[in-house]
Amino acid sequence: MPGFTVAIHAAAEGLRVFERSLATIQNNVTNSSTPGYVRQRQALVSGAFEPEKGLYGGISAGPRETSRDDFAERVVRDRTSAFGYQDQLAAGLAQIEPVFDATGDAGIPGALNKLFQSFSALTVTPNDPVARNAVIERADGVASAFRSTASTIITARSEASKQVATAAGNVNRIAGLIAGFNAQSLNSGDLGANPSLEASVYNAIEQLSEQLDVQAIRQGDGTFTVLTAGGTPLVIADQQTDLIVDASGATVQILDSAANNLTSQFTGGRLGSLLTVTNVVLPGLKASVDLLAETLADRVNGLLANGVDSNGQSGAALFQYNAISGAGASLARTSVTAAQIAAADPGSPGGNGNALNLAGLSSSIELGGLSFAGSYGSIAAGVGRQIAAAKENQGVQTQLLTQAKLLRQDRSGVSLDEEATKLLEYQRAYQASARMIAVLNDLTQTLIDTLR
User: Is the pLDDT of residue 326 over 80?
Assistant: First the structure.
């Protein structure tokens, strides 16, 4: 009878073990598409067979094993951050792409070309009111083109600044989720014992990495410590550090609750990209446009001041601007009249000497060894190169992220085919154990009947 009892006990324990294994497989299949979930396996432990010690073998359930690969997770986070940076950069630059026309037919280059053509026409008929009015009209066009371009840049920067606040809000929200998961872990035990909760926290860390470069460190108590690339803690246990956006100054800054400036620590992810666009790319572009507008206005006004108008008086200025707010955004045509356009040199009233000087601006070297048109072309080409590079890098990072996720899936993801195979194996094992119990039960009953 002891032999039957031991055998029945071993078979019953096998049933319980295989039930747990089948439940683990079912959980894998159910969560196969759950973000952050990885394949789980129920460990089987063989019992020692030492009859003299009362040990008769069998199997028992060991700990549930996870297939999570920390290296694969880290690679996905790094690639996600790099993708977020390039994707956001491409989106930010796309807003200004339409105003930097490289063909020369519209915008600033088109307006400059028409202004220089009006100067050339003035050299032919310097005293013609129509030619003089054409100069004034073309000056209006130039001023309008500069204001439109500068306005687009300013609007794009304002939008990027708002997006910085949105991205920082996303960081705070996700950090709060991770702190909440950590709190659950502290209250109920290691996250690893709860695959669904573990999947949620890993998915949250991956979402966070799209916003910025992060370091995620698993602690002995199962919680995660999350740091910025610069080492500032975002989450420790169930506590988080909120990011505060300060857009009151010349640059947008990221502060902590103690007003420490953390901006330099955010160089990756969407937040890092937005800070680059807001604080570096767009201000630099606006400064280039402002310099071009200011130089053009000063050169034209300077030449006009050296000439004489129809009445023999010193020429009036054609352009005006506010240097504090920026020449590009404030460039405007003055209230100059046709008669006040100084087409002549002081020594030759009524002539076209100064009109020739004005017409010469179309090819004169002004900025960085380039003409006005060449200077604008250099700015537009720079924007074009940045946009092209951002789009190319966006494509590259998309591919690298896809590869990283495929690697992770291969190492730790759920394969429905594999789970189906495992399911059949454990079903057969379960059925075999059940049959063993049935046979042992019949034998036991037969033995009892025999002894009666």
Answer: yes
